[in-house]
Specification:
Strand content: 5-15%
Radius of gyration: 27 Å
Oligomer: single chain
CATH architecture of the largest domain: Beta Barrel
CATH topology of the largest domain: Cyclophilin
CATH class of the largest domain: Mainly Beta
Number of domains: 4
Helix content: 40-55%
Shape: globular
Number of helices: 32
Number of strands: 8
Distance between the termini: 34 Å
Strand order of the largest sheet: 1-2-7-5-6-4-3-8
Largest sheet: 8 strands, antiparallel, barrel
Length: about 650
């Protein structure tokens, strides 16, 4: 009996020790600290501790951890090996490549091998390309889809050669629909003229993902012989294919306006808006058709037409602007954008009148347009906008002054910078550092002093930017004297563990859709989302950004993409992929997420491992496809299914 009690006490003690370590790992991951301690825990006897430690190191992304993580590729636990491979890929550092290639030769688990292959796409060089070509040549390889996907990561990074392109083309002819989709993405990202004929074949593939990528790839190649095929693709029944085909037309100088004008009437808003944008960018002679549909169009389409008219027929644009009565905020912002393309005294006068607006969203567009004007000196007008002290306006002003090479304004920008603070003003601070860094040379002592001061900032994003500019200027980089700020932990380990199993009903003015949060992959982001919904934070907010066949984005309390909840949460990179309907977190740099979210219209591999995926739309993607800029989130409702009560 006594012996049993001793055993039970020992087990209880071990359990308590493990739970304490789990809490410690959670804190280190959240605060991006404890790297040395995490290294030591990679050899812990408990496989869950080893797993959590390697996951945390993958989030922290310290390149000094590569060697330690690599040892876990030989761990006895499959999950530890899998996450070690993923973590090495998340270093985005070629130093990981050799370890991954060695593991590829010995690993027996199909699942782990596929993650190793994916990681090599993020860090691989010629050695990886050679290995992938060898693996592609194997008949009925179980890794074909993984290699095809990883090749897309390689070509996106510019890591490809003639042999790989030839192998991709050959492999697509005998591959599954899913593998062909990945190969079409890889060929599109390669932007190689010799892929033109094969992209044309993929443009007629049964898989819409292949057609979508092929259309975009043809646009990159700019071969005039492919133009007729794009005219066919822009009438594809799949919106994503049609939008990509239309956007591809922007690369050609001899587009037949009669082929695309009918699409301005298309019932799908994404297609009609994209068509209007293409007409404007190519300056096609279609202003009469645009003027004809202007009166009956909604505010979003009116704005797109005005921008197109500004590029094609400036006077017609001015006349339509004058005819508008009480335009909405979104339309007034589009008016400001359109005026920036006209660039004459009349447009400058109108923009200067709009500088008095009290709406910062409109003011952003006014400042951006003033930055494009060359017919008059608008520098003083842009500097005057800095008085708004609005983060977004300051960002646009800094960029506009940089474009104008307004060296005399650097003292103004530096003065404004001193009044800003993180996390709320981080993007404005980055814009000012960029402005000063780009306009400064070694003779500007005050600007160099400013950059040297920022180089010692405790915020890593800001100090890194300043150090990069000082390096380019070949001036002294001061030693870092400030200890990096330790982020405040907003949610406890216990709170995260007690998240219920829930889904989210999102009610919009276009209908409802349902999100299933990815609590296991992104517990901090999901808990943050859960708490914000409980506080009714999202009620009556808008979707402020919609990019056709890319994302819809919303959840900003400002309504213009520049707002947040007043705090940041850390990124939680995970193995989920951005396929259609995934919910991700927008960023202004690593670990700057908060309350905004975006939903993908289609697969977006280039976002994987860079933006936290914390959910998926499981019902109502047809509603998501209807959403456009300015549409409203009426409410979000939590639907609890069962209590989790589990540790992470």
């Amino acid at each position: 009996m006594f012996r049993c009690i001793i055993i039970m006490l020992s087990i209880s003690c071990l359990f308590a020790q493990v739970e304490t370590l789990k809490k410690d790992i959670y804190l280190w991951q959240y605060q991006r600290q404890g790297v040395a301690k995490l290294h030591s825990l990679l050899e812990h006897e408990n496989h869950n501790i080893r797993l959590l430690s390697v996951k945390a190191l993958g989030q922290i992304q310290n390149p000094n951890s590569i060697g330690n993580i690599a040892k876990c590729l030989k761990d006895s636990d499959q999950n530890v090996r899998m996450h070690a491979a993923f973590a090495l890929g998340q270093m985005w550092n070629e130093a990981s490549e050799l370890f991954l290639l060695q593991a590829l030769e010995t690993e027996k688990s199909l699942a782990v091998v596929n993650i190793i292959i994916e990681a090599l796409g993020k860090v691989g060089t010629e050695k990886t390309i050679k290995k992938f070509i060898e693996m592609f040549s194997q008949k009925k390889s179980p890794h074909t889809e993984a290699i095809a996907y990883s090749c897309g990561l390689l070509t996106y990074r510019g890591a490809h050669n003639d042999s790989l392109i030839r192998q991709l083309i050959a492999s697509s002819l005998r591959s599954s629909a899913k593998a062909r989709g990945h190969i079409s993405y890889a060929l599109m990202r390669a932007k190689e003229p010799r892929t033109a004929n094969h992209l044309l074949q993929l443009l007629y593939d049964k898989n819409p993902y292949c057609r979508m990528n092929a259309a975009r790839g043809i646009g990159y190649i700019k071969n005039p012989k492919t133009l007729a095929h794009l005219y066919v693709a822009m009438n594809d029944k799949d919106m994503r294919v049609a939008v990509n085909a239309l956007n591809a037309l922007r690369s050609f100088s001899s587009v037949d306006v009669t082929k695309i004008v009918p699409l301005v009437h298309h019932k799908n808003h994404h297609i009609s808006l994209t068509t209007i944008g293409v007409i404007g960018d190519l300056k096609l002679d279609a202003h009469q058709q645009l003027l004809k549909i202007f009166p009956e169009s909604d505010g979003i389409k009116k704005g797109q037409i005005l921008v197109a008219l500004a590029k094609i027929k400036p006077q017609a644009c001015i006349q339509q602007i004058a005819s508008l009565e009480k335009p909405s905020v979104l339309l007034r912002a589009k008016i400001a954008e359109a005026l920036g393309f006209i660039d004459n005294k009349a447009s400058v006068t109108k923009l200067r009148q709009m500088l008095t607006t009290k709406n910062n969203y409109i003011l952003q567009m006014v400042v951006a347009s003033l930055g494009k004007i060359s017919c008059d000196d608008t520098t003083e007008d842009i500097v005057a906008s800095l008085k708004s002290r609005d983060m977004a306006v300051i960002t646009y002003a800094a960029e506009a002054l940089t474009n104008k090479k307004a060296l005399s304004t650097m003292p103004h920008l530096i003065e404004i910078y001193q009044q800003l603070s993180t996390p709320d003003d981080i993007e404005a601070m980055q814009a000012i550092i960029n402005a000063v860094g780009k306009m400064t040379d070694s003779s500007h002592k005050k600007s160099i002093d400013f950059l040297q001061q920022v180089a010692t900032d405790s915020h890593p994003l800001l100090s890194t930017m300043a150090r990069e500019y000082l390096t380019k200027l070949k001036v002294t980089i001061p030693p870092s004297t400030n200890t990096p700020k330790v982020p405040k932990v907003l949610f406890t380990y216990e709170e995260i563990c007690n998240l219920p199993d829930f889904t989210v009903e999102v009610v919009t003015n276009k209908g409802k859709f349902v999100i299933r949060p990815s609590v296991d992959e992104a517990p901090i982001a999901v808990y943050n989302f859960y708490q914000l919904i409980k506080k009714k934070f999202y009620h009556n907010l808008t979707f402020h950004r919609v990019v056709s066949n890319f994302v819809v984005q919303g959840g900003d309390p400002r309504g213009d993409g520049w707002g947040g909840p007043g705090y940041n949460i850390p990124c939680e990179y995970n193995m989920l992929r951005y396929k259609r309907g995934m919910v991700g977190m927008p960023l202004a740099g690593k670990d700057t997420g908060g309350c905004q979210l975006f939903i993908t219209h289609s697969p977006q591999p280039h976002l994987n491992g860079k933006y936290t995926i914390f959910g998926e739309v499981i019902n109502g993607m047809d509603v998501v496809d209807l959403i456009h800029t300015g549409d409203t989130i009426r409410e979000m409702n939590i639907i609890v299914h069962k209590q989790q009560n589990k540790t992470k």
